[in-house]
Fold these 4 entries.
Entry 1:
Amino acid sequence: MTSYVQDCASLINKISNKEKGFWFPITATDDMRKDVFLNIAMSYYECN
Amino acid sequence: MKTTLTAMLLGFAISMTTFSQTNDDFIIRYSGNGSVVLASGETIHGKVDFVLQTPSRITIIPEGQEKSAKYKSDEVKAFTVDNKQYFAIKMKGGDVSIGNTTSFAQIITPVDAKIKVFLFENQQAVLVTKSYYISIPGDETAYGLTDTRFTPLKK
């Protein structure tokens, strides 16, 4: 996923540091995954 | 006596309601004023009707007309109804099990976001399933949440 947001350093940091809301375990439910992807999409939107 | 009679009448009314239910009562649809943007670029305003049992079709009664027009998802770019915006997108993975399928899905990120998240709702009998799809720039297809390319730390 990080390759799609390379031009947003703050977002890369959040993902790399596994900040809450920007990372999920492999056992995550669809709801957890959806929340993380929404956070990533919105952060990237605000970053650009 | 009066109370008993009222209870009996109420019970009768409830049982009548139960017996008069048909499968149509369970069909979930979003209807209201909206617009449909065709693949040609033409925009039609009117009364939009979107039924979750047929997520690849949209019906609209254009303003000033009585007859409805029906469109398949490959004829339409997007439509709005009830302040929700839907796009015709190709989806892969998730609950869409047969290859690339084009259906209408509600966009839940801003329309101009580079990474978009869509909500796809589908009804089969009385069961409504909700699944989410992600699209990235440069790829027409939206992928299910479990697609490995979207694991956050994957490069």
Note: The radius of gyration of chain B is 20 Å.
Entry 2:
Amino acid sequence: METDEQAVAEPLPDRPLTETSQSLLVFFPGGIGDVIALKAVLEDLHQLRPWLNITVASTVADQWIIGDVATVLDYPVTETVAKGFDAWVNVAEMDFSSVGRELVETFAQYVGIPCPDHAPNIEPYYGYIEAMEHYIRNWDKPRVGIHLASASHWRSIPNFVGLYVAMEMADRGYDVYLLGGPEDRIVFTDNEEHSDPPDNIYDMTQVLGPLEYYLGFLPSLDVLLTCDSGPMHMAGAMNIPTLALFGMTNGEKRTGYYPSVRYIQSDMECSPCERIAEVAPCDGQWCEALARMNPLYIADQLEEVYRENHDADCLA
Amino acid sequence: MSVPHRQLYRVVFSQELAVGAVRSGVVAGYRLLYHGLPYVLTKNIWTR
């Protein structure tokens, strides 16, 4: 991001949320996991105070996650827009980073309501589910999605680990869909020539850029492999069977409120180092705790998650 | 009812400023903030 040393900045007076507030603007530039946690709080706030017009300044694409409980605007908003609201709540400065239940509790405290007693929930729009179903190559085969990249690089599954798992799952009779946005595409080569992915592995990254497409595609999968990432939170809130790999962050904390998500925590002594705001101290270009995970063990665990949730007879 | 509050700032930029999308990964991109137009920001990103 650029900077502007000549920018003029001044603190603004509070606009606290009160019992008589008619409209609320929540300042919330957070990750997808944080938005999903916030949604549970907004749902309860809406139930308690149905007259309150709630708007969230985050990323307008989050509307697909928040649903009709609040309006979502791109952050930052202009002063003119902000002053159209009776009350402001700034939760952006909290030290949050998708750490689980305590995050929901903190959000609830910020908007002055009891902590929600229900898990976050996302319901994608049926039209997108139906449209994305056409990308499934073979409905007779079990379908595994693999999402390698996290917005925080050191949480990402290294490509060589993830693709080893992908090929192993393809060998075991699964169709494998590589998920992500256009920037996550993995280019395959054969003798230094560009090639298609191996048999039964399909690249979806050029399709799934829009969040609503991604949300619409997840229900077509039988099981998802990912890391500590937005897709893990989305799959958890959609109750999709998921296996998540954890290196630098703590799987127990971050998956605790998603019943459908299992995790593998690296057994390296450094894991979890929780150096979220820093550059990881690893020598290579990946988190070593993730890079040293055994792909065959991951594939076994992924199959176990599949079998727990589906009729295993359809496997070849 | 009393809720915690974190400071908000009124910020006017002296030049157009490119900001990254709030998140990357599933959704990426950037946009320009205008100069001379007051924005409400949550922290001192203008000099970060």
Note: The mean pLDDT of chain B is 74.
Entry 3:
Amino acid sequence: MPRQRLLAVLLLLGSLALAAGMLRVAWRDHALIDYLESR
Amino acid sequence: MIEALLQAGPAAWLLPACALVVAVALRWTSWALIPALLVLAAALQVAGFDGQPHLTEKFDATTLVWIRTVILRGVAGASLLLLAFPLANAVARWARWERRWALASYVVVPVGLGLLASSLALQHTLRALLQDPDLPGEARLAALRAMVRAANLVLAVSAGASVAGAIRLAVPLVRGGQAASRSGCVR
């Protein structure tokens, strides 16, 4: 079914977007440490 | 968890409240894919620090803003864990696909667990640092840095687990036909 192939694409893109969002959260935490160290 | 909700203020209630409304709506509507994706995006949005210094005239509030974000991250993670099945249900319903529990546990649960674990680990360290006022500033920063690294590793592992889960579910769908039928598609 075409919709299920679309679901596969959505799953892959969605999970990659979620992973990117989580890595962004991690990156921003690291940025706080850099900021505290620079003070 | 209740203590964290109370500490985080009114904003912390927004995500669970919206999520509850969405969860109820998802049960009956077929167009629920979009709100489901919005809930996921909102959870990640509130879980992340904005990365900007928050300087007031009297003091630097950056760390306080970050601590608030860490608490909200725990709320977002717990909300995603509670909503894993309704969210997966919305996506699966749209595609007329039956592997709802697999979608919830392989893709959404790792994200919720990662956010919650990261938040709890950081809160544990922050509490320990606050209870030891004699600790020198450098040792305090070193302890925080070590815990941020550990929490970031947890986030990276759970992000990887979510992507791996999505690939595991998507491959039979892409192959289609017999494989899709075995994976539980409704024809």
Note: Residues 137-175 of chain B form the longest helix (39 residues).
Entry 4:
Amino acid sequence: MIDVFFMLAILVTLIFLIALFAMIHSVWTIYHQTEHTVLHLGKHHHVK
Amino acid sequence: MLNNFLAFSTLVSIWFSLLASLVTLYGAIRFWIKHSKKIVSITPLKRYPTITIVVPAHNEELVIAKTTKGILDLNYPASKIEVLLYADNCQDKTAAEMRKAVDMPEYRYRNVQIIERQGSGGKAGVLNDALEIAQGEYICVYDADALPEQNALYFLIKKVLENPSRYMATFGRNKTRNAKQNFLTRCINQEVIVSQRIQHVGVWNLFKIGRIPGTNFIINTEYVRSIGGWQQGALTEDTEISFRIMEDGYLIALAYNSEAFEQEPEHLRDYYYQRLRWAKGNYQVVINNFKHLFDRSNWRVKLETFYLTCVFFWFNLAVVLSDIIFFVDLGCVVARFFNPKIPIIFAMDSNLLLMQLLLINWLLMILLYVTQINLALATQYGQATSDQIWLALGSYFTYSQLFIAISIQAVCSVIGDKIFKRDGSKWVKTKRFAD
């Protein structure tokens, strides 16, 4: 049981690790896109 | 053996919940990568349907005037708007405050009715009363503390007009009006942003599932009449009607640009009772709709019921069990300082390598939690700051743990209501603040 669980733990940890890097990359992209869009419209345009 | 099984199954449950949330996250990321660079403009709509805006207010003298002005200033043709302001069983100056706002010269010719109501049924009762007299093609609901942004209604209508025969309702989002007040409101602000920018957006983008929030939404008047109105006595009447819409094969569309500013609880006690009511309402919804998992219901209803069942029963139980396991083991470690023969109860066969791996796994879960919050914040201009990262980390160990206590009390309360046949739909009003 421990062996199966150990393999499962490795698999889940790997998935979390990949998800984390993908998310950090997405935060970076979305942050800059949002900033660019809002600054283009003007901060008080209220249509973002 | 039993100890190991309990520890393993708890951990697997938590993994499963996180993997499921990664699916929603994927949907949200896809949506924001595309939409965060989209430049939205206010162009004339192909038609402007008539709208009845309903504002249920119970002792809301502190906030109602501002909300009334916000509604009357909406960017939508005034001739197409009917406003019904309900002062529901008020003991304060709510109606007077409404009148003061409506009597301002700029609103002189607006179609506004102020109704001082003494009936029962709470918010659902008010909405049902409004349904009887509403003239509009759509009913729009704003809570008394929800100050709509100028284009909020425009975006709701724009979305519904994309497919009026399929979209029976559209909903926007609520921003926290008093986010900077204290630690609690800062945490609530993060939670609200995550639930609306990740949860709502992800589920809509992937499955076209939406759930009507309490405020800032529109719904087709004729449809609500056809189903007999809002269900009275339900703690979350909006969730009930959302299920009904999906059951009938219609959709509740997300208008992500539509924004209203809502006041959140500033004191722990108010927060606790508000969330307890929500949690109880959700438990009731799950119990009432559990049968849909096994009948021939719409797949969206099945998916939503499955999701709510997992979150409110399975995952919550797993989190409570994992906390018990953690504190029992912590107690054993402390006790071993005094008596080294005391075993660690949930030691997972004392496999050191596995323990190290699980520690890394746990750290990754915390990082995912923090990154998810920052991803949501990045979609809103001005929110993604370094302070928010530290706040997200702090909230993991403080604010988010509060929900464990709330869910335990909610379960006990719902079970107690069933056993002792109590009226569990008692509404505890959230305290407002002048701002």
Note: Helices of chain A lie at 2-41.
